[in-house]
Design a protein that fits this description.
single chain, 581 residues, mainly alpha, six-stranded mixed β-sheet, 25 helices, 60% helix, disordered C terminus
């Protein structure tokens, strides 16, 4: 009898556990519906934009590296003056390329999946601390409306990988305050993730260091001292020693000038969303503020506006504030030491924005979980107000989740590079002439997409590249193109020295800046609204090698399209066609 009773008791316990587990699974599956929808929205956005958008300069830097069939040749190119970036993205991207191909959709989905994974990991990390609604608002508001994130969601670069690695580091960071004595395995995993962060982007050191700094502050608050944990991060930095020789070679591309200008205050204001939608789109920000204002009014109406920070919230809030401050810190470095301030480099700060927005949403929405008065009239009124609050919240979440797809649908179809460089009459007259493209990024796009790629040339000329009016990018552009020619000679066979080109071509077209006589002012400051023609890149090859050379006649044809089209003829040319007057 006792054994039967024991068996019945065990069976009842098992059934209870099964019911609990089933309930948890149902709850989990329901809660994960919204993150799944947000991920779906980002992936569809990436696919739609990729059908309309061609690779641009930076993406082609990724493409030629990852699509190289030989891993050894890819490594050789990595060690040259091309991408001033650590190895991890190119290593993983090379393997991704071999599995899924080199198309725009394929390589961009690699980035998009990183951003989607970062969204999910961040949502999981914050959901353990905050409620479902505030977590969803905070995570989706940033990941689905940030200009920086949505741009990188459809670009073949390393920023999706950079973001997911920081999100994983944040997940471990929050776990270290649930288990204050982490196992050796967790410490090793933490070290590996931090090593991956610093081997994905040069700003990895700033964000890995920020996480260590946040640990020290939070541990100080909780009166903890965990040297093994701190050491697991510090030791990960030692792996950078392997990258230093390559870094020095890559960094030489930025001498004597680099394309990054010294920032001004407007650049800082842009990153902090004051003058640009870097992390939150303004129309949706206004809707968010309206919802928060309504919830705050509910607090006042119900006299429940007592906002306290719980112990479980402190560690994530500390990290959120530190990540939020990093752009200001880098802005100061850019003013005092070396310009390194670019908004996309700061993409992990999206986690800081997410944590802070989630915290604010949690405090405002806490009114929805407070007790309703027993008085019937007040109870009815409060129920109506609460229902309206939920309608507002879920309307906001719906708008946010749909935003990436709506923006992708609005994205305009790009023309194939090289298809509209010249008007039809000029193209008809001079279709057989070689075309010198003075911009490296335009040249890269044309030799990839144009059916007439063999007609395009890029000229290497150090004198014109280093001219004081060539813009901040001139010398770096020269070194990049020289490195492409060195590592991929078959693809970049039309990257030639100035003297060699002029020796073999007496008559040719030049596709130059819209105002081909423009001069970039030296020592320009500020990144906002930088016009390539006037600040960043003003090629001086025509001015230094042709206009002052009596052997050549330069005739301006027109600049109705994006380029100025120039006809260059050597005076002693034996060409049967008369010069254009």
């Amino acid at each position: 009898m006792k054994s039967e009773a024991h068996d019945l008791s065990t069976l009842a316990e098992k059934r209870t556990k099964v019911k609990i587990a089933t309930g948890l699974l149902k709850n989990i599956s329901w809660e994960y519906t919204l993150p799944a929808l947000a991920i779906f929205s980002l992936l569809i956005s990436c696919i739609i934009i990729s059908t309309k958008k061609h690779y641009w300069n930076d993406e082609l830097f990724s493409y030629y590296m990852t699509s190289e069939p030989s891993f050894a040749k890819m490594l050789a190119a990595f060690h040259d003056k091309l991408n001033n970036t650590p190895i991890l993205y190119f290593f993983l991207g090379w393997n991704w390329d071999k599995l899924f191909g080199s198309s725009e959709i394929s390589l961009r989905l690699f980035s998009s999946l990183g951003i989607c994974a970062a969204l999910l990991v961040t949502w999981i990390s914050l959901r353990k601390i905050y409620g479902f609604c505030p977590t969803s608002i905070g995570v989706f508001l940033i990941f689905c409306t940030s200009q920086i994130i949505l741009t990188q969601n459809a670009e073949a670069r390393m920023y999706g990988l950079f973001l997911i690695l920081n999100a994983l580091a944040f997940l471990l960071y929050t776990n270290f305050y649930k288990d204050q004595s982490p196992s050796t395995l967790l410490l090793i995993l933490n070290s590996v993730i931090h090593a991956a962060i610093i081997h994905t982007h040069l700003f990895g050191g700033f964000y890995s260091g920020a996480i260590l700094f946040s640990l020290l502050i939070s541990d100080r608050i909780f009166k903890l001292f965990r040297p093994k944990l701190y050491l697991s991060i510090i030791l990960s930095w030692s792996s950078l020693i392997l990258y230093i020789p390559t870094f020095l070679i890559q960094a030489d591309a930025g001498k004597p000038r680099t394309y990054i200008f010294e920032p001004n205050f407007l650049d800082l204001a842009d990153v902090y969303n004051l003058t640009a939608p870097s992390f939150i789109r303004r129309p949706i920000l206004l809707v968010f503020l309206f919802v928060m204002a309504y919830l705050f009014c509910l607090h006042i109406y119900r006299r429940s506006a007592k906002f306290r920070i719980s112990k479980t919230e402190i560690p994530s809030l500390v990290l959120g504030i530190v990540f939020f401050i990093i752009p200001f810190f880098i802005w100061i470095i850019s003013l005092t030491i070396k310009p390194i301030f670019l908004d996309r480099y700061l993409i992990p700060s999206a986690l800081g924005w997410t944590i802070i927005v989630t915290f604010i949403s949690a405090k405002m929405s806490s009114v929805l979980s407070s007790n309703i008065p027993e008085n019937k009239n007040l109870k009815f009124r409060n129920t109506i107000l609460r229902i309206f609050a939920y309608i507002l919240i879920f309307s906001l979440i719906t708008i946010i989740i749909a935003y990436p797809i709506s923006e992708a649908i609005k994205y305009e179809q790009e023309r194939i590079p090289g298809s509209s460089d010249m008007t039809s009459d000029i193209l008809q007259k001079y279709s057989n002439l070689p075309r010198v493209v003075t911009y490296s990024h335009s040249f890269l796009e044309r030799i990839y997409y144009s059916s007439e790629r063999n007609k395009f040339f890029y000229i290497l000329d150090w004198k014109s590249a280093t001219d004081k009016y060539s813009g901040s990018f001139g010398p770096q552009e020269y070194k990049h193109m020289e490195a492409w020619k060195r590592n991929f000679p078959n693809i970049f066979k039309n990257v030639v020295k100035s003297d060699d080109f002029l020796k073999h071509h007496d008559r040719f077209l030049v596709l130059d800046t819209h105002n081909y006589l423009c001069k970039c002012p030296p020592n320009h400051k500020g990144l906002r609204n930088v016009d390539v023609d006037f600040y960043l890149d003003c090629p001086q090859w025509v001015e230094t090698r042709l206009l002052n050379n009596r052997l050549y006649k330069v005739t301006f044809l027109n600049n109705k399209n994006w380029f100025s089209v120039l006809l260059v003829e050597k005076h002693n040319s034996n060409s049967s066609q008369a010069p254009l007057k």
